[in-house]
Design a protein that fits this description.
Elements: H1 2-15, E1 29-31, E2 37-39, E3 47-53, H2 58-73, E4 77-84, H3 89-98, E5 105-108, E6 125-129, E7 135-140, H4 145-152
Parallel strand pairs: 3-4, 4-5
Antiparallel strand pairs: 1-2, 3-6, 6-7
Pfam family, one: AhpC-TSA
Main location: other
InterPro entries: AhpC/TSA (IPR000866), Thioredoxin-like_sf (IPR036249), Thioredoxin_domain (IPR013766), Thioredoxin_ResA/DsbE_sf (IPR050553)
Length: 154
């Protein structure tokens, strides 16, 4: 029986997908939709909201103004929008023309996810990065000014 259980455990280890552990201090180096380079490391000293969203996601669209307002009213907070979307970049730009956010947005396609961030299990997904560059909080679902303020503190 012991051999059977051991064999079953070994089989499960090889059958289950392996996921890398997200680093405590993740990096992002992308080109934004306006063609500018973005490096998360250059934001040290500030809180950074890393928000994964898509143009087709209704809760994402609803939370974008809250994130934009929070960033605009908190001088020590920055944001990067990650359009986790296979849509043509010109369509995302057109969407942002109608729904301006005031922070940089980069597109990441599902076949080329960010290497240091876990792939979102649903959208929206938001990571709050502390001024030291470490992950402070992970939100699944929409964020609000209140939830961001509670996570950052006074």
């Amino acid at each position: 029986m012991k051999l059977f259980v051991t064999s079953l455990l070994v089989a499960c280890m090889f059958a289950a997908p392996a996921y890398a552990v997200m680093p405590a201090q993740p990096s992002i180096k992308v080109t934004t939709l306006d063609g500018k380079p973005y490096d998360l490391a250059s934001q040290r000293g500030h809180w950074v909201i890393v928000n994964f969203w898509a143009t087709w996601c209704a809760p994402c669209i609803k939370e974008l103004p809250d994130i934009a307002h929070f960033v605009a009213t908190h001088p020590n907070v920055r944001a990067i929008g990650i359009a986790y979307d296979d849509t043509d970049p010109s369509d995302i730009r057109a969407f942002l023309d109608k729904h301006p956010v005031g922070f940089p947005v980069a597109q990441v396609t599902m076949d080329k996810p960010l290497k240091d961030f876990d792939e979102p299990l649903g959208l929206p997904t938001t990571w709050l990065i502390a001024p030291d560059g470490k992950v402070a909080k992970h939100f699944m679902g929409p964020v609000t000014s209140a939830s961001l303020g509670a996570a950052i503190g006074p």
